[in-house]
TrEMBL record:
<feature type="domain" description="Gfo/Idh/MocA-like oxidoreductase N-terminal">
    <location>
        <begin position="52"/>
        <end position="173"/>
    </location>
</feature>
<keyword id="KW-0378">Hydrolase</keyword>
<comment type="similarity">
    <text>Belongs to the Gfo/Idh/MocA family. Glycosyl hydrolase 109 subfamily.</text>
</comment>
<feature type="domain" description="Glycosyl hydrolase 109 C-terminal">
    <location>
        <begin position="189"/>
        <end position="350"/>
    </location>
</feature>
<keyword id="KW-0520">NAD</keyword>
<dbReference type="Pfam" id="PF01408">
    <property type="entry name" value="GFO_IDH_MocA"/>
</dbReference>
<dbReference type="InterPro" id="IPR050463">
    <property type="entry name" value="Gfo/Idh/MocA_oxidrdct_glycsds"/>
</dbReference>
<dbReference type="Pfam" id="PF21252">
    <property type="entry name" value="Glyco_hydro_109_C"/>
</dbReference>
<feature type="compositionally biased region" description="Basic and acidic residues">
    <location>
        <begin position="436"/>
        <end position="449"/>
    </location>
</feature>
<dbReference type="InterPro" id="IPR049303">
    <property type="entry name" value="Glyco_hydro_109_C"/>
</dbReference>
<dbReference type="InterPro" id="IPR036291">
    <property type="entry name" value="NAD(P)-bd_dom_sf"/>
</dbReference>
<protein>
    <submittedName>
        <fullName>Gfo/Idh/MocA family oxidoreductase</fullName>
    </submittedName>
</protein>
<dbReference type="InterPro" id="IPR000683">
    <property type="entry name" value="Gfo/Idh/MocA-like_OxRdtase_N"/>
</dbReference>
<dbReference type="GO" id="GO:0016798">
    <property type="term" value="F:hydrolase activity, acting on glycosyl bonds"/>
</dbReference>
<keyword id="KW-0326">Glycosidase</keyword>
<dbReference type="InterPro" id="IPR006311">
    <property type="entry name" value="TAT_signal"/>
</dbReference>
<feature type="region of interest" description="Disordered">
    <location>
        <begin position="415"/>
        <end position="449"/>
    </location>
</feature>
Length: 449
């Protein structure tokens, strides 16, 4: 009897979705789940070695990462950029740090292929525009090197799978450089979550709310490529900064997983309004048609039933905000500014997180915080991330964040686009881990280093 009513319920669900012309979650990602390779890179250690590092992309982000890597005494052997002056500037930083001048690869868009073919490279760091991440990471792994790729790792589900398959078949790691997972607050809160301070977790909120209008219309740096994505995609094109830390709080890919999302976009207005004020008549950028809704809001459901609200807006006035909320049965934390509340406290007031610092400050920040803050890079988190990546490689540990995290945290990009295009229909996340998300627990970032 129970079975019959369950079946009728499911049928009714299918009918109402069909009546509304919406795909069911199971249909939504049909065709996007290619056969698994049967091998896994989960919990696979790096070979213990001080890696020789090459960097592709010596623009704003690449140069900043280079400074942090040099601050961690990384050996840098090769640099690549299509703009020779940028590569030369990066080369001068390596020489200033007391190392031999790294070889430069500046002969156009595909010169990275010569770099990844070198014999003397162990790790290739990729800080290029989004459309280059996957071809560069795949070529890196196919040539027997580990890859560390900027965010988002991939912009299509097919490419997420490509990274997973290449990593599994080449036995090389592909980590996504999600620096926000190493923020002071994020690592402190992760330790508190793991200690059970928030009780049973219920929901999180994550975002990338960053007024990038000036950068998007700049004639240098990201202005040369990022605005173009606003003519192509309507969804959340930069999901990982807010989502990575919340996924770690929730042990996603380590006992839980993202199951599906629904997404909505507001109208597009911000870039048009900015253009009216800042561009002269006849500027070629007037011919562009922006289609990205200014505020994209997605709602993710996990297999264990938790929910995450995920937002993206880079086109309007807004103070910088990743929201960074985690809530449970005993209390909650929310960021920007950081504040915390526990059961039994004054119900009219948030508390400061300072009182938890002594007990829960992460060892990485305890030990490396001073240098991290001095070298900078988003308040020191970039240094901590680079330090930890090199530490995992030097000590022969598995990476904190693996190719499954790179694929899973990038997937809301294309899934939100599909959902928006289909009347906010639910879109299923592929299980990039092949079911192995059940076999391990808790982000290693939360443990004693
Ligand atoms: N994690 C973070 O906090 C953070 C911050 C900023 C940017 N990013 C990411 O870093 C990446 C780079 O962003 P950016 O701000 O440095 O942009 P950028 O435009 O300043 O730098 C990109 C560089 O890549 C070079 N490039 C382009 N195509 C190339 C090719 N085929 N071969 C070699 N070099 C090529 C460009 O000449 C440029 O120097 C992006 O993925 C972005 O999302 C991450």
């Amino acid at each position: 009897m129970q079975d019959v009513s369950r079946r009728s319920f499911l049928r009714a669900g299918a009918m109402s979705a069909a009546a509304m012309n919406l795909p069911m979650p199971s249909e939504a990602s049909a065709g996007s789940e290619p056969k698994l390779t049967g091998q896994t890179m989960m919990n696979v250690s790096y070979e213990a070695k001080n890696p020789r590092v090459a960097l592709i992309g010596t623009g704003g982000r690449g140069t900043s990462l280079l400074g942090n890597l040099l601050g961690c005494d990384a050996q840098v052997v090769a640099l690549c950029d299509i703009v020779a002056e940028k590569a030369e500037h990066a080369q001068s930083l390596v020489v200033k740090a007391g190392q031999k001048a790294p070889e430069l690869y500046t002969r156009g868009d595909h010169d990275y292929e010569r770099l990844v073919a070198r014999e003397d490279v162990d790790l290739v760091v990729i800080a290029t525009p989004w459309n280059w991440h996957v071809p560069m990471a795949v070529a890196t792994m196919q040539h027997g090197k580990h890859a560390a790729v900027e965010v988002p790792a991939a912009t299509t589900i097919e490419d997420c799978w490509k990274l997973v398959h290449t990593s599994e078949t080449t036995r090389k790691h592909c980590v996504m450089l999600e620096n926000c997972c190493y923020g002071f607050n994020e690592t402190l809160i992760l330790n508190m979550v793991r200690a059970g301070e928030f009780g049973d977790l219920l929901y999180g909120e994550a975002a990338y709310l960053h007024d990038l209008r000036e950068e998007l219309f700049s004639n240098a740096g990201e202005g040369l490529w990022r605005r173009n994505f606003h003519t192509l995609l309507n969804g959340n094109m930069y999901p990982t900064h807010g989502l990575g830390p919340v996924a770690n709080y929730m042990s996603v890919n380590r006992g839980d997983r993202f199951e599906y999302l629904v997404s909505m976009s507001s109208p597009q207005r911000g870039l048009d309004v900015y253009r009216k004020v800042h561009l002269k008549e006849g500027d070629p950028r007037w011919s562009e048609k922006y289609i990205t809704g200014d505020l994209n809001t997605s709602l993710i459901k996990t297999a264990n039933g938790l929910t995450i609200t995920l937002k993206h807006d880079v086109s309007n006035p807004h103070p910088y905000d990743r929201i960074n909320t985690i809530a449970g049965t005993k209390g909650l934390f929310t960021d920007y500014p950081p504040r915390i509340y526990f059961d039994g406290e004054d119900p009219e007031a948030w508390g400061a997180i300072d009182r938890y610092k002594d007990q829960y400050q992460h060892p990485l920040w305890k030990n490396e915080g001073e240098l991290a803050r001095k070298l900078g890079g988003h308040g020191g988190m970039d240094f901590i991330m680079c330090f930890r990546l090199l530490e995992c490689m030097r000590k022969g540990l598995p990476p904190d964040m693996d190719v499954y995290d790179a694929a899973t945290w990038s997937a809301p990009g294309p899934l939100s686009e599909q959902s928006v295009a289909n009347g906010s229909a639910p879109m299923k996340f592929p299980d990039f881990t092949g079911g192995r998300w059940k076999d391990r627990q808790g982000s290693p970032i939360g443990k004693e280093a």
